[in-house]
Amino acid sequence: MKSQNILLTEFDYAPFSIIKTEDYKPAILEAVELAKKEINEIVDSEEKPTFENTIEALEYSGQKLDRVTSIFFNINSAETNKEIQKIAQEVSPVLSEFKNDVILNKGLFERIKSVFEEKNSLDLNKEQETLLEKKYKAFTRNGANLPEEKQKDLRKIDKELSKLKLKFGENVLAETNRYELLVTDEARLTGLPESFKDEARSVAKEKDKEGWIFTLEYPSYLPFMKYAEDRELRKELALAFGSRGFHNDELDNQENVLKIAKLRYQRAKLLGFESHAHFVLEERMAETPEKVDSFLNEMLEKAKPAAEREFKELENFAKNLDEIDQLQKWDAAYYGEKLKQKLFDLDDEKLKPYFKLENVIEGVFTVAQKLYGLNFKEVHDIDKYHPDVKTSQVTDETGESVALFYADFHPRPGKRDGAWMTIYKQQYVQNGKNERPHISIVCNFTKPTQKEPSLLTFNEVTTLFHEFGHALHGMLANTTYPSLSGANVYWDFVELPSQVLENWCYEKESLQLFAKHYKTGEAIPQEYIDKIKKSANFLEGIATLRQLSFGMLDLSWHAVDPSKVKDVKQHEIKAFEPTKLYPDVGSNCMSTAFSHIFQGGYSAGYYSYKWAEVLDADTFEYFTEHGIFSKDIADKFRENILSKGGTEHPMELYKRFRGKEPKPDALLRRAGLISK
Predict the structure, then answer these.
(1) Residues identified as active-site
(2) Structural domains present in the chain
């Protein structure tokens, strides 16, 4: 008798330990067929279309497929291998085809349209109204009204895009994994902290090599660029990092970039939009590429003078210190750190002993407890996909279950770089039961060594708080429908809960909860807290310009017709011109490794990090006016933002929380770009 595929059985927690790689593809294919049956039942119904038998039925269809694919694609990001990548390439076109089968199903659209046209006579609450509108728009915006011939073109484009995006990400991961810098002469490692060198020696030992190995993974790359005195080695590493996907070889992404940008444009035109950005931004707070462009340029106007002043100061500092003629990109972090130490007598090596990973995790849990009454208890009987993963049950003040929380902190060869929050199971209400969510954060922090535990840089501390802010958005979701739950909000609103939580990393009241020396238990000294606060705006102009440059590069690919672009590098040079500070490096290209926009969901949306900073600065000002642990403001934020997901337009939710629309002034004040 054939054994049943574990992924097709009923389960609450993902059964990682008993899933075999060969289970994924058949489970996904069978779940697609099951979802198709559910769609056919809606379409074939002889009953008059109603909100319940059409809109709600569609919303709750495909649940098995959603669970299986969420597990599979999360594993493909956090613990992948060649087999899993091959399956991803095989199932992505199938899933794209299925999505189009639904969107382009004439009978289904007729039923949805029928309900939509009667919406004013239906007694719907706000969440139901939003769901109806979103379902109707999902169809009209994605080709339901197109003639059959054009629908075929759309299917072809979507299938091709799903493959290209996967290939792009696989190439970046392979490029990151294949490079290593082996140093055999310890004299060339001057400036590097001992703990960092120990980690590099451990990596070399694991690979049966003598010396120290540095890689392009962030916990290895960033400290090297910040502390290594050997300028030639910094240059070598920077050139390797900046040229990922840009080597004219089998891992080259230039063709993928051009194809993805052109296909997105063709898709948008097919659907009646001026560009991919016009298509995307119709469903964002920013609304149009023109508004985004105006926002970016307004920020550029405010930040550029400060950035140019800071750059000049950094350049003069480097000249005086080391007689550097021309500041290059591989000098930025190194001299930035040196100048910071000189001005504030503060550096990560002084701070890291106070940021033991376990203490920071405990700290972010305590912040969540003080703000939202959440309790986190580590559990060891939940299946994990890797031994590094930690699992916690989350409960509220009454002991009721709120969520399951997974956390995965260290780099591995099968894990893509960066940090992200993701979901294994959405929150929703069905048949009177409030299904609670399973939320995960994935990071790439410094590993513990034989001599020391995992000690975080301050930047890693803010990253952990950032991703945990996203996690809170998922955990505290309290909506009826899964597609409107948690972080299923406009993409230029989704960064508010994450970015606002970073502010607690700079506050004495918060730091004293968890910043304790890992050896002595001594609380972080007040002078360090003062210096962290004081240095918060250090080189803020340059940092702002960098973020704006990414947003502008994104728009340059997606707000215009990219079909005339023949040379990825030349296109990029032109896009970066308004924000340029450092000389260009001919062998480097950002677009070929810009996973956020070419693999992830940030195409035509990278500006949203800056946009959300406006919201977060305005939100945190509100907290500081009443106290950073004000229960009143936290309750308002939870009630109007965190629990509501995408049930209403984000500006309405924000105004209900704050009492007014946000203005950039709070951000500009916080960044020191305008006076208080």
Answers:
(1) 467
(2) 6-145 (1.20.1050.40), 179-242 (no CATH)
